[in-house]
Specification:
Strand content: under 5%
Mean pLDDT: 81
Shape: globular
Helix content: 55-70%
Structural class: mainly alpha
Number of strands: 0
CATH architecture of the largest domain: Orthogonal Bundle
CATH topology of the largest domain: Rna Polymerase Sigma Factor, Chain: A
Radius of gyration: 18 Å
Number of domains: 2
Largest sheet: none
CATH class of the largest domain: Mainly Alpha
CATH superfamily of the largest domain: RNA polymerase sigma factor, region 2, helix turn helix motif
Number of helices: 9
Order of helices and strands: HHHHHHHHH
Distance between the termini: 49 Å
């Protein structure tokens, strides 16, 4: 299979097929990125199109210094920030994130429960967690996108996972709570503290 970077370079040289292949690979993931962060699915679809239009417009300036995936999510993050600013101006209140996973297969109450737990996280921590768990980006990719040191990404991710775990397993027995059916949230990736492992 041809790498994303090779496809992008072919597209730069005029290959329409290379662009179509990139679009086929990333249309779904980029739509999921916007859909989880915006309430209107039609607006998420519009922003997917804007993302790829930005790629077309900037194709001559593309340099393979980073992964195409990181490049696309960077464009998507910029468009998302602009969309939130626009919504704030129009409504006078900060835009509310949807934090919805259209591909989640759990019971509606479980999905809602996870969504509410995610909404309680600090915005920066939540974004790092979502980029890692939903978008499956590496620490280095997240650091590059958010312009943060990798260690800051690691600490924010740890903090977010611990806060999410606490929200999903409050004082009640953990077994009494249903496990999240949302594919991207992996509670098992949170290591228990020494006090918890002795209990």
């Amino acid at each position: 299979m041809t790498s994303d970077e090779a496809l992008m370079l072919k597209f730069q040289r005029g290959s329409r097929e290379a662009f179509e292949e990139l679009y086929a690979r990333y249309r779904g993931p980029i739509f999921g990125f916007f859909r989880r962060r915006l309430q209107a699915p039609e607006r998420a679809e519009d922003l997917v199109q804007e993302t790829f239009l930005a790629v077309i417009r900037a194709t001559s300036r593309y340099e393979p210094r980073s992964l195409v995936r990181t490049y696309l999510y960077g464009i998507a993050l910029n468009l998302l920030a602009a969309e939130r600013r626009k919504q704030t101006r129009e409504k006078g209140t900060p835009a509310v994130e949807s934090i919805d996973d259209p591909g989640s297969q759990g019971a509606p109450e479980t999905v809602l429960w996870v969504r509410q737990a995610l909404e309680q996280l600090e915005a920066g921590d939540r974004e790092v967690l979502m980029l890692r768990e939903y978008e499956q980006l590496s620490y280095a990719e997240i650091a590059q996108l958010l312009r943060l040191p990798v260690n800051t990404v690691r600490s924010r991710l740890f903090r977010a996972r611990m806060a999410l775990k606490e929200s999903l397993q409050p004082d009640a027995e953990p077994k009494a709570k249903p496990r999240s059916a949302v594919v991207a949230i992996r509670q098992d990736s949170v290591s228990a503290s020494p006090a918890e492992s002795e209990a």
